[in-house]
Each structure stands twice: as structure tokens, then as C-alpha cells.
């Protein structure tokens, strides 16, 4: 048995060494395993993508690229461009929304104050710029998104979102009070009851993503973080099979947002 044990021990040592090397180098190694809750619809591209699909997919990368693309999160390092004044660290600081805001307005928007403050400007200045130019900016020294993090096809989608998909939220949500100031509640109710309720329930309480002892329903979020919810309605939540209203434009999404703010918060 001795040789077998020796061989097995050597094999185990080899595995351990491989694992150590792999851990050291693996941080951004692509992981194509699809999670149970992240089926093709959530993380894959259609064969012949339409403009609304591209913009919604780009919006999800803006939200959280590793969940949108089913990749490992960059837990190990705070983004080098994340400023000292900021209160966040680690993976969160690699989300576009963390530096530029859910309303794309950066320091001019909702993140002008509070725990998400960075002082960084919004992305509105890049509206209408070429996808190629935005793409280069995102691969460059300020942003540092390499191919293992966001592959070329996905980076082109978030660049398309920056160029053609962002919209001015300031007329819908007041950036200083974070209150919803537009939207037709009755139109929103029509859409919510016939579409969203299939998964979220008529009162929005069928899915709860809050922590222990703390509810987070659509109603809760619509009141607390309407700019985030508007993104989810326009682009869908990342890594799950949720629909989005991109094909119908922001006005209808704001109607739904307004209605969801009337739903139970707990
Ligand atoms: C860690 C913070 C940080 C993250 C995360 C980040 N950016 Fe930036 N971004 C910056 C900074 C800093 C600038 C330069 C701002 C300046 O020139 O004052 C910038 C500039 C930009 C600009 C140019 C804006 C203009 O007015 O021309 C665009 C577009 C942009 N970022 C898009 C993105 C996208 C898309 C993502 C995610 C894929 C992203 N950023 C993630 C910090 C960040
Ligand atoms: C096909 C099912 C489905 C439909 C239809 C659907 N959603 Fe979702 N939605 C989900 C799932 C799944 C989640 C993730 C829940 C979780 O993380 O626990 C989610 C998450 C959300 C979130 C929370 C994201 C966060 O911040 O964590 C919001 C807000 C939301 N949905 C709003 C809507 C609205 C509004 C509609 C209608 C326009 C809608 N959803 C339609 C499945 C759906």
C-alpha cells in the first residue's frame, strides 16, 4: 500500500499546489458556469440582438457587470480610481453605478451627498459619443476593465448604453430630495398588474430581497431608492430571469415606478 499512499500524497500535494497557484492567478479567470438562477435569458446574448436588447443588456453591465455576465466578482481590490473620500471598498467600487450614480449624473445627481458620495462626475457628457471612443475609455487607465472582466462584445454593449441608452432622470426623480416627481399611477397600475405581478405578486411582496428582519419589496425600494428601481425596470435586475421595459421607453417605466411607490413597503 505504501507506493499507493505515496502516489496519492504526491497527487494531493500537486492538487494543493495547483490550487494555490490557481487562487493567486485566478481572480479574473472567466467562469462560464451558469448558476441555477442565471439561465441563458439573464446572461447570454440572442443570435440577432435588437437595439432595446443591447441597451438593456448594457444597462445591466452598468449596474453590476459580474452578475450581469456571470463572472467572478473583483472582491480582492478597491478600484484604484475610487477616491479617498468614498465610504465603499472592494467589489462594489467596480460597479459603474457606484462612481457615476443610478441616475448617470454622478456628483450632480442623487450621489451628490450620502454614503455613495465620490465627487465623480456623471456619464452624461459621453451621450452621443462613438461606441469606439467610449470602449477605449473603459479599457484605459482610469477604468481598467480588462477582457477577463468585461469581454469585448459586452464592453461594446455598455458603451452603446452610455452613448444611446442613458436618459435624463432629473425630470422624474428630484436629485436633491430623491422623490418621484412624475409618472401616471393608473397607467403604471395597468402595466404592473399585467406584467410585473406575475413574479412579484399583485402587492409586490411575493419576492423579498431584504436581509434577516428587514423587508425589501418593490414598494420598499421604490420609496427608498427610486433611481435604482427605475434602472431595474428599464434594464432588469442582473443575473435573474426578469423582464424589462426598455422597448417601451422611460416614460412608461416612470409610470410603473410611480405606481410601485404606492405598494406596501413592509
Ligand atoms: C472607481 C470609479 C469609477 C468606476 C467604477 C467607473 N468610472 Fe467612469 N469615470 C471615473 C472617473 C474618475 C472619470 C473621469 C471623470 C473626470 O474626467 O472628471 C470617469 C469618466 C467616465 C466617462 C466619461 C464622462 C464624460 O463626461 O466624458 C464615462 C462615459 C464613464 N466614466 C463610464 C463608465 C462606465 C460605463 C463604467 C462601468 C463599466 C464606469 N465608468 C465605471 C470613475 C469611475
Ligand atoms: C419573470 C419574472 C419577473 C417579472 C415579470 C418581473 N420581475 Fe422584477 N425581479 C424578478 C426577480 C427573480 C428578481 C430578483 C429577486 C431577488 O433578488 O430576490 C427581481 C427583482 C426586482 C427588483 C429588485 C432589484 C433589487 O434592487 O434587488 C425590482 C425593483 C423589480 N424586480 C421590479 C420589477 C418590475 C417593476 C417589474 C415589471 C415591470 C418586474 N420586476 C417584473 C423577476 C421578475
TrEMBL record:
<keyword id="KW-0349">Heme</keyword>
<dbReference type="InterPro" id="IPR036909">
    <property type="entry name" value="Cyt_c-like_dom_sf"/>
</dbReference>
<feature type="signal peptide">
    <location>
        <begin position="1"/>
        <end position="24"/>
    </location>
</feature>
<keyword id="KW-0732">Signal</keyword>
<keyword id="KW-0479">Metal-binding</keyword>
<protein>
    <submittedName>
        <fullName>Mono/diheme cytochrome c family protein</fullName>
    </submittedName>
</protein>
<feature type="domain" description="Cytochrome c">
    <location>
        <begin position="183"/>
        <end position="264"/>
    </location>
</feature>
<keyword id="KW-0408">Iron</keyword>
<dbReference type="InterPro" id="IPR009056">
    <property type="entry name" value="Cyt_c-like_dom"/>
</dbReference>
Amino acid at each position: 500500500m505504501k507506493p499507493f499512499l505515496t502516489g496519492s500524497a504526491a497527487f494531493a500535494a500537486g492538487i494543493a499546489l495547483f490550487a494555490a497557484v490557481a487562487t493567486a492567478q485566478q481572480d479574473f479567470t472567466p467562469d462560464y458556469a451558469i448558476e441555477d438562477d442565471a439561465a441563458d435569458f439573464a446572461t447570454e446574448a440572442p443570435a440577432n440582438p435588437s437595439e432595446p436588447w443591447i441597451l438593456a443588456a448594457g444597462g445591466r453591465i452598468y449596474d453590476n457587470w459580474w452578475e450581469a455576465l456571470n463572472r467572478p466578482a473583483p472582491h480582492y481590490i478597491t478600484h484604484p480610481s475610487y477616491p479617498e473620500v468614498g465610504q465603499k471598498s472592494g467589489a462594489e467600487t467596480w460597479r459603474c453605478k457606484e462612481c457615476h450614480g443610478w441616475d448617470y449624473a454622478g456628483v450632480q445627481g442623487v450621489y451628490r451627498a450620502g454614503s455613495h458620495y465620490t465627487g465623480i462626475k456623471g456619464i452624461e457628457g459621453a451621450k452621443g459619443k462613438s461606441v469606439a471612443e467610449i470602449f477605449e475609455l473603459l479599457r484605459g487607465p482610469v477604468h481598467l476593465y480588462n477582457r477577463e472582466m468585461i469581454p469585448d462584445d459586452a464592453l461594446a454593449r455598455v458603451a452603446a448604453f452610455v452613448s444611446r441608452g442613458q436618459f435624463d432622470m432629473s425630470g422624474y426623480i428630484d436629485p436633491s430630495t430623491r422623490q418621484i416627481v412624475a409618472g401616471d399611477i393608473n397607467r403604471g397600475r395597468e402595466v404592473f398588474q399585467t406584467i410585473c405581478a406575475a413574479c412579484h405578486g399583485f402587492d409586490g411582496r411575493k419576492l423579498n430581497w431584504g436581509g434577516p428582519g428587514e423587508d425589501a419589496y418593490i414598494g420598499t425600494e421604490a420609496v427608498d431608492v427610486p433611481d435604482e428601481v427605475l434602472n431595474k425596470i428599464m434594464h432588469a435586475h442582473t443575473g435573474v430571469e426578469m423582464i424589462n421595459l426598455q422597448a417601451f421607453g422611460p416614460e412608461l417605466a416612470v409610470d410603473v415606478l410611480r405606481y410601485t411607490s404606492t405598494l406596501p413597503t413592509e
